[in-house]
Amino acid sequence: METKHFKAESKRLLEMMINSIYTHKEIFVRELISNASDAIDKLYFKSLTDDKVGLKREDFAITITLDKDARKFIITDNGIGMTNEELDNNLGMIANSGSLDFKSKNNLEDDVNIIGQFGVGFYSAFMVSKLVTVRTKAYGSDIAYEWQSEGIDSYTIKECDMDRVGTEIILELKDDTEDEKYSEFLEQYRIQNLVKKYSDYIRFPIKMDMQKSRLKEGTENEYEDYTETVTLNSMVPIWRKNKNELTDEDYNKFYKEKFYDYTDPLLHMHIKAEGSATYNALLYIPSNTPFDYYSKEYEKGLQLYSNGVLIMDKCADLLPDHFSFVKGLVDSEDLSLNISREMLQHDRQLKIIAKNLEKTIKNELTRLINNEREKYEKFYKSFGLQLKFGVYNEFGANKDNLKDLLMFHSSKENKLVTLEEYVSRMTEEQKYIYYATGESITRIDHLPQTEMVKDRGYEILYLTENVDEFALKMLMNYNEKQFKSVSAGDLDIDTPEEKEEIKAKSEENKEMFEFMQDKLGGKIKTVRLSQRLKSHPVCITSEGELSVEMEKVLNAMPNDQKVKADKILEINPEHPIFEKLRSLYQADKDKLAVYSDVLYNQALLIEGMSIEDPVDFSNKISELML
Ligand code: ADP
Known about the structure:
9-stranded mixed β-sheet, Ribosomal Protein S5, domain 2, binds adenosine-5'-diphosphate, 4 domains, Heat Shock Protein 90, about 40% helix, alpha+beta
């Protein structure tokens, strides 16, 4: 017999489990059942192509035995079993050490999430046990092994006798204390309830010998005890049941257990399809953004079952990236059981299913926009960003599909509106869909560039996310209406008379603007009179495809290539500062140079950009104050 030590990380986790930060001790039942069911899945899968297994579908079962006198909880399965090596690898350490990093920031709900998600399920046995024994014989192996541990820092493995393939796990429960009654897990009704609660959909029977009593035959008040083997779970997976048999609560409960979320999902979609593809699907949209959703670690995908047997845990091909937030599963008879991952990617049936699911999800979201606006807004807060990336990504391949799901904050409505709603409110003379970009709604609201557009009574969409403007540029237009930034060089908002007036004034001051432009070096392309300012003296706008905001976003990205927008410094001809500039041009050109610089920097600050030389700026202001 060999004594081995748990790997350091496993030890830490074990300690945490035993000291029970994790208060939902009862979950060990679910974890052990789920492992047993996975092991049976594997052997059943084998049995379909390998006659030597010698078991039929109905032969597979999980058995729970409660031994009150010995304080033992025993769970047995006739699944695939483990070899010596697997026993050592699987139960001797934890697969994913990432779980521990995450756990250090833990709170209770996160703990619940971690169990299982990172493969620490088996360890939950130590929350309730003082000694855990695993006896197992792998399919295809002649020797059985016994793994044993008190869960402190070591375990032993030795050979043992077992007459069949499978695994038996024996938990010797801890002694009861004032606060913790471990013996509750020896009560058959308690276990019966736990199985119903957590493992009802397990597709193999979970059997338990229950002690019952009955009236003795031929007597009127004499009772006798007898043992009856009961199947505790209903086995029919929820997605195979009829919709009218199920309540929202059933769907939510299943979601929380299956996808390790502790909040109810925002919505579920239960799909039973027949026709070009036959399948059942159960899809969910979570209420909250998963903590790793917008990171590289997040893996999209749906569970894929072939006629009730799990063939892939995260089938990415079933979901487009723009709907990667959807969780759920698909069960189809059309898919071959022993299909390989590579073949699956090219499977025609799978492609049809994926297309259908995408349509269903889109329809459901559209339904929310029209009928359950509040819910859609909640959804949009969590996942709207993903839709906007979706419009932009793949060179806009999905933009038409997604454009009606987008929402932006409206200056008029002071809430999120769709593009359709915006366009439906446009007046006849309004040519463009106006938008403004900035860090926050409040900041955008105060941008000088928005003044004139608002004054004309036009609605403005406020874009606060980096990707927003890129997404709109990708869309180019909506219902033939072009998008126009309020900071665009050619705002095109004036009447012909106004245009004439500005032109004349510009001509008059041409030399002064050239002088200012010269003094500002290469920082800006032009200085000119503004058609859009009302009360503010200056602002920065841009010409061409690249806006000032896009310059900011692109330059913040981690690469060496820097881009530069063609910036324009616009001056308000109605502002007293304009007259001041004119008089300086006549009397004091040096001072005009200082003014130009200060005004340019002011415009940058208003735009939320950083200024190159804040010390110089501050000195110039002080100089002017004297
Ligand atoms: P997870 O199930 O999340 O992978 P566990 O710690 O619960 O993590 O189990 C670790 C591994 O041990 C499993 O992946 C499986 O390979 C093996 N295992 C656990 N229980 C059994 C069992 N009853 N039969 C066969 N293998 C098992």
